[in-house]
Amino acid sequence: MKKIINKNILLNTIINFIFLIMTEIIFKIVNFFNLLDWSSLRIIISSLMICFLIANIEYFIPKKIHKFINIIFIFICSFYALLETAFNNYIGVYMSLGTSSQLGAVIDYVREFILSFKWYYYFILLPFLLIIIYYIFINKIIIKKFNISTKNNNYKKLKKDKFLKKCILNILCLLIFCDLFILTIYVPFTQNKLQIVTNKELFANPSVPSITIKQYGVTMYGILDVKHYFVPTNIVKEYNSENLKKNSKNENSTRKFDDTKWKNIINKETNKNLNNLNNYFINNNITDENEYTGLFKDKNLIVIMLESVNDIIINEKDYPNFYKMYNEGWHWENNYSPRNSCSTGNNEMSGMTGLYSIYNTCTANEYKENTYFESIFNLFNNKGYYTFSAHNYTEHYYYRNEIHTNMGSQKYYGVEDLGIRYSNLYKNWSSDEDFMVEVNKIIDSIKEDKFMTWLTTVSSHQPYYYSSIEGDKYIDLYDDLDIRKDLKRYKSKLKILDNALGILLNGLKEKGILEDAVIVMFGDHYPYGLSTSTINSVLDYDTSKDYEAERVPFVIYNPTIEHKTFKEYTSYINIVPTIANLFGLDYDPRLYMGTDLLSKDYESLVVFADGSWKNEYAYYDASKSDIEYYTNKRYSIEELQEINNKIDLKINMSSLAIKNNYFNYLYNSLNGIKVEDKTHINNKTKTSS
């Protein structure tokens, strides 16, 4: 046997591997991943495997186009790595096919997207430039030195037995690469003990892109993402329901529930996923009633999700209406709105249901037909409130008319229903001032004694680089400030929002119902059209580290309450159970991934979309499986594993519940409603992108 592997196959493998691994190394450096860990070995082996496979495919293609195939391959890999890096920097998550519906949003903001690139991102394209240089100046020298044939492949002229031998040898080599790659997934010492999702689970389902990319590299992540999109594999983790029962505090709870029907459902249910969910939720803790229970009983509720608002709005001079409610009501200093795919829609959904959205999916749109009997709307519907929701833009990005209706909103008002002037150009949003004028009219027309509404604003949305109606309206107010012009435009847009809040307050006061109204406000996400350095120029903390960019205001205001500042770490996931307790509603605390913030059982903690978390003691980075401490307190490995396992279980069960339209199933089952068609189980609701 003179040749084990054909020289051309070997050369193409080496060429592609050198430039591919160079791309992976630069990607790791640019994204601040550790180079010296077991993931690097896994990436090296997978890169060799991919390059060897491509070289074998090229063997059946004329040699004169091999270099073009290799150049295109490296270009695709490096350009994809650049896009992933930039997308994560701009949106806050690595992109996947599951978030393809948001591609239009990025295209709409293509200038801002490109401007958000940090200068060193372009180093990722260096391997593409170098492979071109290689083929221009070096390739011919290599071919001549090693006597590599440049003639077309002549495998057809080989005898059958020799051809089979070559094929078998190449397949064996490929299998060796595959075996080594699989070993790096399953061998225990290559698995970080603190990692929230195992490498095995990520290979089957790259459900957490940040961890998958870190462990498998950007190229393999892309392959796994495509594989999972077309051949989805969902691993349902097993857990011991007896352990949940042991750890629960339900026996002495002041809230009591008759679970007889639910237990009968569990005994009869044959679907494994549904019973996993049944056992999980029925064993969740029931938080006690507390001194705040029913404080706002029978009052009206207005929840306002503030578009692209962060702590910049906490400014008495510039934004007096917001500051009045912030300073006279209750506010949480350490509130965050973790960005997920489709940040606004998913965070709105989480705020309404107390569930974590599915990380790499535009969950609100993808599962728009789901129903949630435990949603904030339905809790108030059950108390005889009139519920409605409104947003001053179209259905272009999110299908709110259907989503909110299925959440229980008795009426949804879009921008056209409100009769507000708006532009189809994304840079000119409708005015929040006009929005609140129309909201006041709706409140005037309500015949019921009590109402609850969810309002989502839009004026403070990017772009900030472009001149726009909202961005320029109050920009002159900030001429004396030594800040960038895009930040001045953002502040101008916030001024419109603050004026809108003033219109709402004045309207409630004129109606004589301000004291009977509770206003809850939170930012949906930080203004990601602005760079962190720009934001840092006007804030007193660094937004470039430890997910501090996700810090946004959370305020509960009523003129009759005493001002309080809370320091617990929290997010939108806790809104529904907190409000339900404050209003003395009939609700089951077990059905939410969040907890009543005013309960003695509340654990100060905010969980980010990728499983990272933070509290007053530490910040855990899930993508790097690394922890940074803020105080002298230290967690043991066992304590960290317990926290991570609890978080992972919550995220996993939340995703499973949404995918299976579980709350529709549970409501029907508890109320004896027979559902003949169970095709919704384990199937996604199909939507257009």
Word description of this protein:
With 689 residues, this protein is of the alpha/beta class. The protein has 2 domains: 7-230, no CATH class; 246-592, Alkaline Phosphatase, subunit A (3-Layer(aba) Sandwich). Helices cover 46% and strands 9% of the residues. It is built from 26 helices and 12 strands. The chain has helices at 7-30, 38-58, 66-91, 103-108, 110-115, 126-137, 139-145, 160-186, 199-204, 209-230, 241-247, 260-268, 272-282, 320-328, 343-353, 363-366, 376-381, 400-407, 415-418, 432-445, 469-473, 485-511, 532-536, 575-582, 637-659, 662-670; strands at residues 300-306, 330-336, 386-391, 411-413, 451-456, 517-523, 554-557, 564-571, 606-607, 613-614, 618-621, 626-629. The strands form 2 sheets. The protein has an 8-stranded mixed beta sheet with strand order 4-3-5-1-6-7-2-8, with helices on both faces. α3 (66-91) runs antiparallel to α6 (126-137). The radius of gyration is 28 Å and the shape is globular. The two termini are 55 Å apart.
Largest sheet: 8 strands, mixed
| Helix coverage percent | 40-55%
Work out the number of β strands: 12
Shape: globular
CATH topology of the largest domain: Alkaline Phosphatase, subunit A
In short:
By secondary structure, the protein is of the alpha/beta class.
List the keywords.
8-stranded mixed beta sheet; 689 residues; disordered C terminus; Alkaline Phosphatase, subunit A; alpha/beta
How would you summarize the topology of this molecule?
Elements: H1 7-30, H2 38-58, H3 66-91, H4 103-108, H5 110-115, H6 126-137, H7 139-145, H8 160-186, H9 199-204, H10 209-230, H11 241-247, H12 260-268, H13 272-282, E1 300-306, H14 320-328, E2 330-336, H15 343-353, H16 363-366, H17 376-381, E3 386-391, H18 400-407, E4 411-413, H19 415-418, H20 432-445, E5 451-456, H21 469-473, H22 485-511, E6 517-523, H23 532-536, E7 554-557, E8 564-571, H24 575-582, E9 606-607, E10 613-614, E11 618-621, E12 626-629, H25 637-659, H26 662-670
Parallel strand pairs: 1-5, 1-6, 2-8, 3-4, 3-5
Antiparallel strand pairs: 2-7, 6-7, 9-10, 10-11, 11-12
